Amino acid sequence: MALIGMARELDLDHLATLWCAPDGSARNKIEKSLSPLNLPLAHAAIKCGQMSLFTEKQAKNCSTMKSIRTLAEKIKESVNNVMTDMSTLSHQIEHAADVVHLKDTMPLCE
To answer: Phi and psi dihedrals of 15, rounded to 5?
Structure first.
C-alpha cells in the first residue's frame, strides 16, 4: 500500500517493485545462477541534473513533493512571462529601428 501511495504522490506513469528471493540469492537455486548479473549494478547511482543556484536554494526550502511541484510551476510561469516580455521588447526594438531608418531616408518637412 505504501508503494501505491508513493506512486500516486509522485505522479508516476508506472511503478515496478522488485524483491529478492527468500533467504537471499546465494541460497536460492534459481537465483544463484543469476546473481553475477547484478554485480555491475552494485554501487551504481544516477547523476542528478544541474540546477541554477537560485533554483537549488529554493528547492532546499521545499519539504514535500507538492511544494516542489508548486515551485516548479512558479518557475515555469516566470520563465514564460520573461520569454513573452523579451519577445515584446524584441518587436519594439525592431519597430524602433525601422522608424530610425525611415527618418534617415525621408526628408523632413519644414
So the answer is: -130, 125
Asked, for residue 45, whether it belongs to a domain, the answer is no
User: Is residue 44, in this structure, part of any structural domain at all?
Assistant: no
- Distances in whole angstroms, Cα of residue 108 to Cα of each of 23, 36, 85, 97, 102: 94, 86, 34, 18, 11
Condensed to tens digits (0 to 9), the pLDDT of residues 52-64 reads: 787 778 778 888 8
End-to-end CA distance of the chain: 85
User: Would the pTM of this model clear 0.70, i.e. be above it?
Assistant: no
Print the domain residue range for 100: 66-110
Count how many domains the chain has: 1
Cβ partners under 8 Å of residue 5, min gap 6: none
The answer to the question of residue 84 being in a domain is yes
